[in-house]
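Hi all, a correction to my earlier message: I attached the wrong file for Cobalt ABC transporter ATP-binding protein. Here's the right sequence:
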Amino acid sequence: MIRFENVSVRYDGQEHPALRDADFEVPEGELVLLVGPSGSGKSTLLGAVSGLVPHFTGGTLRGRVTVAGRDTRTHKPRELADVVGTVGQDPLAHFVTDTVEDELAYGMESMGTAPDVMRRRVEETLDLLGLTELRDRPIATLSGGQRQRVAIGSVLTPHPRVLVLDEPTSALDPAAAEEVLAVLQRLVHDLGTTVLMAEHRLERVVQYADQVLLLPGPGERPRLGEPGRIMADSPVRPPVVEL
Ligand code: ADP
Ligand code: ADP
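and the right structure:
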């Protein structure tokens, strides 16, 4: 579903590439974790999936990234929005409307979806993410975990086949992080959505993963280090691919 063929990204004026020769595949319906220290290129890799890199960030991408068969370099992020939904660390940065229900409808509205389809999708998403009771609430009054569920819901309504998340639980307390992870698991299970997620609290999420992609720190060779220990402690040990 996601395919990187020898992908390197170098930003203008940077001495080292932010991503070097990344080559991997994420099969349809898998939940894959992306792990690596700060500055190792996690956001760059995720941006290359959603098309933000290099369209909005500048720099040069070599190699080829395809998502559901579409080359992300020849498609603008807008032209990928029906296949890839992207959620960042800070859900507040994401919101453009006032209430939960409006937020879920917004993405489809801007794609020109028919009103009856839109209403149905919003109902489905409210139900799937456990947000039905909160539909009329102003987003500003929600908890962190609730907000992050709304952010995920807002990119889910167009039924993207791939969901990309950049440390979606990093701003959340443990209970709220669990809420979000449970939602992601349900998406993979019920909708067959392919999920690629950067996450540094590996111990919390490794049990849900089908595969772990490990990025070395800048100038390092890949090494399992702490992820290796966490993995050894986990009852579930997904395969690790060192990039
Ligand atoms: P952040 O500032 O985003 O928390 P860190 O540099 O502290 O990033 O690293 C976060 C986690 O990344 C570490 O706890 C470690 O488990 C993990 N990690 C990922 N890849 C590596 C690696 N190649 N070597 C060592 N630790 C790694
Ligand atoms: P991570 O998400 O693992 O912290 P990033 O992908 O954000 O890593 O960053 C990888 C490297 O690329 C870092 O050295 C960072 O400073 C640099 N970088 C990221 N975005 C840009 C940009 N738009 N322009 C220039 N350098 C960037």
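Sorry for the mix-up. The chain has a mean pLDDT of 88.
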